Amino acid sequence: MLFGSIVRFWSNGWIAELYEKPHYFFPFYGFEFVKPLGEYTCLLFMICGVSALLVAIGLFYRVAIVSLFLSFSYIELIDKSTYLNHYYFVSMICLLLMFLPAHAYFSVDAYRSRALLADQIPAWCIDALKLFVALLYVFAGLAKLNSDWILHAQPLRIWLPAHNDLPLIGFLFNYPWIPYVFSVFGCIYDLSIPFLLWNHATRPFAYVAVVVFHGLTALLFPIGMFPYVMMVTALIFFSPSVHQRIINQLGKWLSASSQFLRPRRTYRYSPGVKTAILTLFGLFFIVQLLFPFRYLLYPGELFWTEQGYRFSWRVMLMEKAGYAQFMIKDRFGHQTIVNNSRFLTPLQEKMMATQPDMLLQYAHILRDYYAKNGFHNPEVYVDSYVALNGRLGKPLIDPTINLANEQDSFKPKAWITPFHDTIYGF
What we know:
Elements (H helix, E strand, L loop, with lengths): L1 H10 L2 H7 L20 H17 L3 H18 L6 H13 L10 H5 L10 H21 L3 H4 L5 H4 L18 H21 L4 H18 L5 H8 L6 H14 L4 H4 L9 H20 L11 H4 L14 E10 L5 E3 L8 H7 L3 H16 L7 E10 L5 E2 L31
Helix pairs in contact: 1-3, 3-4, 4-5, 7-10, 10-11, 11-12
């Protein structure tokens, strides 16, 4: 699926549009060393695509999975304007796979080296992946336990009526109670689906729910490959016998020998390696359990300030719209209003206008630009108005603060205006 995603990205011209044409980028805090590669970006995507294909067929697996993790994560970190939860999901899955023997069975590597071939692996190798998928769903469900989502069906009350022209089901979105049904079902689905998939008796019905839920998500919302990624990922919960039947059929088509399909051998880690990997996995899951709750360290409403919002499996919980007008001036009387389209792409401007850390980054971009173009120690101010989940727009950033002098950090951002409202819940 990753290989197909890279091909899709390339064929749609998104590499040039998102990573070559922009003049400026918004790196993640702490990853400012990740720079755009300009004309070499296509090479980076090529490495990522080839690595994904090699991982899929199990050829040069150890090198390929490391290459896939590094190249995909590098692409993800270039510009936060393109941030999506499933990019983070893919990076973390690749990180786990770096330590797992996913090439030990039914792979080109195993075919070339029968000493590697094994049709059994330690159960914790599979359970680690299941646990990570379960965490994604549970945190997504907990995040939906908030008053906007449950009590006000926001932002679905904004999004669903826009699809009332869909064949067969479109008319349903004209009913005011439908968004509430979708909101409650979405919350229950996320909180229960990993446990239903893990249970043998409920697994087939749960997988039907996965296909229906993510199929509707793909139909209604433009969130790329995420629904399809989750449909395929959920298959890992099925029993070994189900996968074995699929592999046996593929083996017949490929004329694979019975010795290759059923070597009756167990893959074993050395005691030291096993201990080291389990320790690393333990630390990994501790971080994954704690990281989504880091928002509790910050004052203010999470959806407004977005301090601690990313990388916490908060999927499609808010509709933010706004605009930001920047003024540059200095003590010698120079003054100008910024035309954002001179510096940013439409996507970058849209994302920047509602996210405080991106507003600050853009202010620094403007500060440095105008410092080189006639302004002495330029000051940067912004009038920013943002509407959150159907509320009236209000200023997001204190317009009296000179953002040129503010620095990004993990500390609370005092220059974000108070929300003056409360969204109850996680």
